[in-house]
Amino acid sequence: MAIESILLAVGPGDADRLERLADETIDVAGPTGARVVLAHVFTREEYNSALDNLDFDTTADEVSADDVAMRHSTIRELVDTLDEAGVEYDIRGRVGDHGESIVRLANDVDADRVLVGGRKRSPAGKAVFGSVAQEVMLSAPCPVTFVRADTK
Q: Which residue range or ranges hold the UspA domain (predicted)?
């Protein structure tokens, strides 16, 4: 199976694992020549907060989730790393439930692989609080690579 499209999904909790997410993405995209779709999924509250923090003028223009994602620090950091590695990419933003939005976007871009970050949780923690990564792994239309932050 050829890998032509990789979805790298990031969210508000991924700042501590961006380097690992980028490295894992480059390890797959580099040799295969795959195009990477950098995706930042926001809940409605996260999106509204990002609009304020990034000083968007919402009265003058229609601001899309793609626009907000492009200016978000996590995406900008990943863009710099992918540029250095010579990996081609697109940027997408979505507003909604993290897990559902990632799975929907994986379908939309016909992803051959999804990379998603997460942290170690006990089974009880997943049951009580849910797990975006678990939802993506169970529902994605393609293989999913789970990237955990370095533990010290």
A: 5-148
